[in-house]
Amino acid sequence: MSTPETSPLPDLRFDVVDLVGRPGAHRNVSRTVEAPAAEEPPASMWVAEGEGIDVETSLESVVDGIYVGGTARTVLAGECSRCLDPLEEDVEIRFDELFTYPEKIPHEMSREERAELLVVRDDDVDLGPTVYDALVLAAPAAPLCSPDCLGLCAQCGIRLEDDPDHHHDVIDDRFAALQGFFAAGTDESGTGENGMGETGTTEGSR
């Protein structure tokens, strides 16, 4: 399980000492934390450093642990996957988790299964990983500034929204060398559009 040093959102640990062992007791809490710097964003859009993450949750004591349910709101920032314009998107995620008391974990459970559990540690519940993972899933895989965004020209990179008629004359690579050959031949011989040079004209008039 994560610790304050390893949790992706370390300021989302809540003390539940007043709820432990008291099934039915509950408490509502809210907290706003600032997103830490991310060396590499985990998704195409992510929370900018210092951006607030507003968390509202209900902590309820149950027989096996502490049930936690609530929401988190923040702003994701990124860029359009087509035109690369900057984007921002308001998101709200929902979470519902059971943090189990260590003594309630079945002994027959495997190490891998235990690793998947959320556990009450030192009378605390750590919502950091839960909120972090939910925000990653909420981020769009290919964000767009608009559904009909035209993107960028693949040849020159111009933003097509600014010039919808923009295009390039494409020449088949197989004929590009021949085009240069004929152009060079025309310059050297002086051949006109009819394919005849001065010598051909003279002979034809005889």
Give a structural overview:
- The protein has 206 residues and is of the alpha+beta class.
- Helix content is 20%, strand content 29%.
- The chain has helices spanning 111-115, 128-138, 173-189, 198-205, and strands spanning 13-15, 26-34, 46-47, 52-62, 65-79, 86-100, 118-119, 124-126.
- A hairpin with a 6-residue loop joins strand 5 (65-79) and strand 6 (86-100).
- The longest helix is centred in the last third of the chain and has 17 residues, at 173-189.
- The radius of gyration is 33 Å and the shape is elongated.
Average pLDDT number: 81
Q: Characterize the biggest β-sheet.
A: 6 strands, mixed
Shape label: elongated
- Secondary-structure content class: alpha+beta
Order of helices and strands: EEEEEEHEEHHH
Secondary structure tally: strands: 8
How large is the radius of gyration?
Answer: 33 Å
Portion of residues in beta strands equals 25-35%
Number of helices: 4
Q: How much helical structure, as a percent, in the residues? A: 10-25%
Uncertain regions spanning at least 5 consecutive residues: 1-5, 192-206
Straight-line N-to-C gap: 100 Å
Task: Describe the protein's topology.
Elements: E1 13-15, E2 26-34, E3 46-47, E4 52-62, E5 65-79, E6 86-100, H1 111-115, E7 118-119, E8 124-126, H2 128-138, H3 173-189, H4 198-205
For the structure shown, list the relevant keywords.
206 residues; alpha+beta; six-stranded mixed beta sheet; two-stranded antiparallel sheet; disordered N terminus; disordered C terminus
